[in-house]
Recover the amino acids of this structure.
């Protein structure tokens, strides 16, 4: 049998920064500095708001569980009020949709996202400035 040789896998070369518009190049450090200064104000506020957001979610989860259990109990009663159960199910569906849409991580991830993007800008345009 003949051995099949596989070529050595090598990592792709690191991207090399290319020349860009001189005005853009000169503005990048100032823009990044302004973004980072603003983040210093925003980040503590985002951290502060995370606490009540999570508290709200905890209470909402409890209410969803409570209504769901209440519906199940009512469905097993000897006399079932269909209109009441349907109203409860509609209310439960509204709360479940609110819970689904109430994504604390999405609400508070902007700071992390901005930091990631500014790092990418620094790396892409070879800006060795630490902010």
């Amino acid at each position: 049998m003949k051995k099949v040789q596989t070529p050595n896998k090598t990592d792709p070369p690191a991207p090399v920064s290319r020349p860009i518009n001189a005005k853009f190049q000169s503005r990048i450090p100032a823009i990044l500095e302004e973004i980072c200064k603003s983040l210093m104000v925003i980040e503590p506020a985002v951290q502060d708001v995370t606490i009540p957001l999570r508290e709200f979610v905890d209470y909402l989860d409890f209410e969803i569980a409570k209504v769901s259990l209440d519906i199940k109990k009512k469905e097993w009663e000897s006399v079932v009020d269909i209109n009441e159960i349907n109203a409860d199910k509609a209310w439960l569906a509204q709360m479940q949709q609110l819970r689904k849409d109430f994504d604390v991580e999405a609400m508070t991830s902007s700071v992390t996202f901005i930091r990631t993007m500014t790092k990418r800008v620094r790396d892409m345009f070879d800006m060795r400035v630490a902010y």
In short: The first helix runs from residue 22 to 75. The chain has four helices and no strands. The CA atoms of residues 64 and 92 lie 6 Å apart.
